[in-house]
Structures are given as C-alpha cells and as structure tokens.
Amino acid sequence: MSEPRKPGLFGRLFGFGETPPAPETTARETTKAEPSAPAAETVPAATEPVSGPAEAPVSIPAEPTPAPPTRVPPPPVAPPAAPARPFFAAPAPPPAPAPEAPKESWIARLGKGLKRSSSAFGDKLGALFTKRKLDTATLDDLEDLLIESDLGVDTAAAIVARVAAGRYEKGIGEDDVRGILAEEVSARLMPVAKPLVIDPARKPHVVLVVGVNGSGKTTTIGKIAARLRREGKSVMLAAGDTFRAAAIEQLKIWGERTGSAVVARPQGSDASALVFDAFREATAAGVDVLLIDTAGRLQNRTELMAELEKVIRVIRKQDASAPHDVLLVLDATTGQNALQQVEIFGRMAGVTGLAMTKLDGTARGGILVAIAAKHKIPVHFIGVGEGVDDLAPFDAADFARAIAGIEK
Ligand SMILES: Nc1nc2c(ncn2[C@@H]2O[C@H](COP(=O)(O)OP(=O)(O)OP(=O)(O)O)[C@@H](O)[C@H]2O)c(=O)[nH]1
Ligand SMILES: [Mg+2]
C-alpha cells in the first residue's frame, strides 16, 4: 500500500514547471534593515540550500524552548558572484541523490490517520449491511453515520440516495457502499483540489498565513519554505506573530533549517509594522516568496480579526495585488468549527486557499468535504505529521479513498 513518492510531487505542489533551477543561496543581502525600521532584525538565510528529502524529519515543539542563537553573527560573506543565473530558466540541477528514507508515504500516513474514522465507519457499516435487504431504517442509520463523519447533510443525503437507488429488496454490500462514498466525496473535492501557484513574476509573491491558535500555521510555513527552497526559490519568512517570544523563535528555527531569511522584531512589536518592513526587505532583495506568519486568533475575537485586516491593509499599501495568497490553516481535529473558521477568516482576510493539518491523527477529515461543498475554496495542502516532509499537495481521489477506508 505504501507507494513511492511521485517524482512530480513538488511540481504538483506548487504548480511550477518541472525543471526547477539550481538552488542559489538566498538572494537576501545580509545588510541590516533600512533605517526607518527601528528594531527590525533579520536573521540571514543559511547559505546552504535545503538538502532535500534526505533531511531528517523534524518536529518543532509547540512552545520551543530556549531561544537558539537567533542573533546570528555576521553572516557569511556572499559567495563570489555567480554568473547571472536566472531563477527559472536554468536547467534542473542534478537531483540530489536523496537516499529515500524508509519512511511511510504520506498517503499511508493519511490513511492511518483517517483509519480511525474509516474503521469506526467500517465497523458500523459492516453491522448495518449484514442484513440481506435494504430498508428505510438501514438507510437512516447510514445517513446518521455519514453526518457524524462531518461530511455534511447534503453529501450524506446524496450518498444515501445513491445507495438506495434501485437496490431495495436487493441489498448492497459494505464494499459497494465504500465505493459510492469514495466517488461522492471525490466528486465534491475534485473542483477544489488546486496547487498553490507561485507567480514567478512577483518578487516577492506574498503568502499570508492565518488561522486559529495552534492550527499548524508556523509548521506549515516551515514545510512550505523547505519545498520552495528545494525548488531553488529564495524565501523570506516574516515573524508576524509578535505576541509570543516562543513563536518568533519557532519561525527562526524554521528559517535556519530551510535556509530562509527571517524578518523578526522583539515580542510585543506591532505586527503590521513588522510586515511592512518584511515586504520592503523582500522587495529590495528580490526574494521570490515572502511567507508571513501571524498570531493564532479565534475567528470570533473581533479585535484580533481587526488586527489581521490592518496587516492586510499595510501590505496592500505597498503592493495593491498583495497578499497574493491568504492561506487559512485548519486543524482537522477541529471538526465542525472549521466551517465557521472558513467563513469568518474568508470574510475578514479574503482567504484564497486552505491547508488542513493533523490528518495523520484524526477521525475528522470529513469536514473538508462539507467545507468544499459550502465554500468552494481551493484546498492546497494537507499536513500528515510534524516533520518537514509531512506536507502533501491535496489530492481529491486519494483523500476520498482514505476517507472511505479503501486500500489502494
Ligand atoms: N500530527 C501533526 N501535528 C502537526 C501538524 N502540523 C502541525 N502540527 C503540530 O501542531 C502543533 C502546533 O503547530 P504550530 O505550527 O505551532 O501551530 P500555529 O498555528 O503556528 O500555532 P500558534 O502560533 O500558537 O497559533 C505543533 O506541535 C506542531 O508540530 C500535522 O500535520 N500533523
Ligand atoms: Mg505559530
């Protein structure tokens, strides 16, 4: 069942062409922030590009302990100017001979996480369909079961209708029901399964990452940064979660790990001012992608949502088209509340895409189907673990099979 990673994964992930240029050291100059940026501190990017999948999986604790040496001493002198090498036109570097760690494929991990739901679902389904004939009570129970799985009332009704169609008095097996479930789920998710497309014309392409507390924003930023770096893109991270010192340190660790520059300010600084500086620095350095971390905030905390709106206004003042993506990170374990998060973050922050994390350990992935049916917002990524490689592009058919508990 464990499938080898497909070679085109990263391309599919970001919608890039398939020949990424040779990685360069991060383009960011290591000069300090411009004078008008009082306390802005930029941690220079590591000079080594990320080494690829061979990198050991990492796990960042939610509250990273003591700050690593974030005030990195004078950064290494930029290597002798390489002949102007365009980011996107160079041939692909020889693929790093990444000795594929004997690690489970993401789809296997997704399947395991969702297995809780699918096996619970399967057990109940098995009990339901032991009878030879379908009757209304069985179908009602099936509908309840599907609604409990967070799929949404309409989807549940549609599945039940298909199960029932023409089969009264005949009966139907559990496998057939799983097949119908997978098809219906897939049909609803297909239209929203879209990669995050980074526009190479933008320097920087700005991705603002938002979501409730602990949903996985910072980790997802780290994972995305790692992928982008492997694609040869230069990346800057903005530590826009200025509330907690630990949050700033956490992002800096990801910066070091991925070879991305980090723009940070001391705890308690104004997030909008930080973002302003970060945008200007990213522009000056010609960085490809600016990933902006934000503090977790509950969607019903008006003042915090207002702060987010301010961050967006500040970005727009500098580039009316930015942020180019507003990625809402949803924790799959949240269940139904995710619907409200999509609605309110969507309204206040103009969410353009979703990432759903923690699908490796939950029984509640079905909520994505309800979200897709209701909001039709693109789903870019799923997170299936805490490690740097535990991010996958969203694939509707795979996800649907995992939900239905169908082994590939
Ligand atoms: N199992 C699992 N854990 C994850 C995943 N993504 C993130 N986490 C963990 O979830 C916890 C919270 O992740 P963070 O990235 O700090 O979340 P955040 O949204 O930045 O949190 P705040 O900044 O506090 O709002 C950490 O322990 C992560 O390692 C995932 O896909 N699977
Ligand atoms: Mg965070």
Structural overview:
- This protein is of the alpha/beta class and 408 residues long.
- The chain has 12 helices and 9 strands.
- Strand 7 (353-357), helix 11 (367-375) and strand 8 form a beta-alpha-beta unit.
- Helix 4 crosses helix 5, helix 5 runs antiparallel to helix 12 (396-404) and helix 10 runs parallel beside helix 11.
- It binds guanosine-5'-triphosphate and magnesium ion.
- The site of guanosine-5'-triphosphate has 24 residues, from helix 6.
- Magnesium ion binds at residues 217-218, 241, 247, 293.
DSSP summary, beta strand count: 9
* Radius of gyration of CA atoms, rounded to a whole number: 23 Å
Coarse morphology: elongated
Helix content: 25-40%
Largest beta sheet: what is the strand line-up?
1-4-3-5-2-6-7-8-9
Indicate the low-confidence ranges by residue numbers.
1-39, 46-102
What structural class do the secondary elements suggest?
alpha/beta
Helix and strand sequence: HEHHHHEHEHEHEHEHEHEEH
What hetero molecules are in the model?
guanosine-5'-triphosphate, magnesium ion
Work out the helix count: 12
Largest sheet: 9 strands, mixed
- Strand composition percent: 5-15%
Query: What do the pLDDT scores average to?
Result: 77
What is the rounded distance between the termini? 6 Å
